[in-house]
Amino acid sequence: MPPLLVWTEISFMALYGITLLLSVIRFPKYYDTPVRYLPVLLAYTLLTEAMGMVIRDNPEYSLFLQELYYNNNWLIFNIFSLIYFGFYFYVYYHYLRLRWILPGVGLYGLAVLLNAFLDDFRVVSQVYSYGVGSLLLIPMAFIYLKKESRNRKNGPMGRNLLVWLSSGVLLFQAGYTPIKLLRYLMVEVPLATMAWVRPVHLGLIHLMYALFIAGLLVMKKMKRPGPEKEIHGNGK
Asked: Which of 5, 32, 77, 193: CA 20 to 30 A from 40?
């Protein structure tokens, strides 16, 4: 394995830990906003990744009795996806008040149920519901960034933590969702494909968390959402 890939395999867990630590230190700057659950999400992310690696590499910690699934860890990652999308849907609903967010969340819930019916939630990656969640999350993040770029009265964009979170999520979802779908649709993934998929995935994680860390370092106290009224889909 190339040294760079070895480093990225190890360092991404450190990034999770650093981001979690900073989110706790900076908590007083956003404790009264919808982003207050960020440390919980980050801690759960770190726990999920650690559990996933333990189950993958140690058959004695398998979630299933069947030998066929001894290193299958999709159950914990499928549960994680529900919490991950739920957090961002909650945040953007309060900050954007777009009329289509609640119906979109309902559509995502339906996709989760249908995907679980088609593919065993315990042992198969829930690609279809993940895709629906991503197709909702990407425009939310983009609209928020566009809205903040036009709204100068809230202060510099670079001091707004949610701008950095949105940038990281937008880049990660736009890059990783096609990879996730490709891996699912290809019955037999060629070794040449796997050789670049993992580094790209890890690179996207590093980029996203680097943006999170930067945002936590430079952020000012976050403003709470404005008046609770729904707005049109174009963000005006």
From this structure: 5
Report which secondary-structure segment, H or E, holds 136.
helix 127-150
Contact partners, residue 27, CB within 8 Å, separation at least 6: 36, 39
pTM value is: 0.88
Spatial neighbors of 68 by CB under 8 A, at least 6 apart, are none
pLDDT tens column, 87-116: 999 999 999 999 999 999 999 999 999 999
Which amino acid is present at 143?
I
205: tokens are: 């994680």
Please report the pLDDT score of residue 15 as a whole number.
93
Angle at 37 between CA 224 and CA 50, to 5 degrees: 150
Alpha carbon distance 1, 119 (integer Å)? 33
Give the residue from 212, 133, 145 showing the smallest Cα distance to 173. 133
Give me the DSSP letters along 152-184.
Answer: GGG--GGG-HHHHHHHHHHHHHHHHHHHHHHHH
Tokens of 89: 């849907």
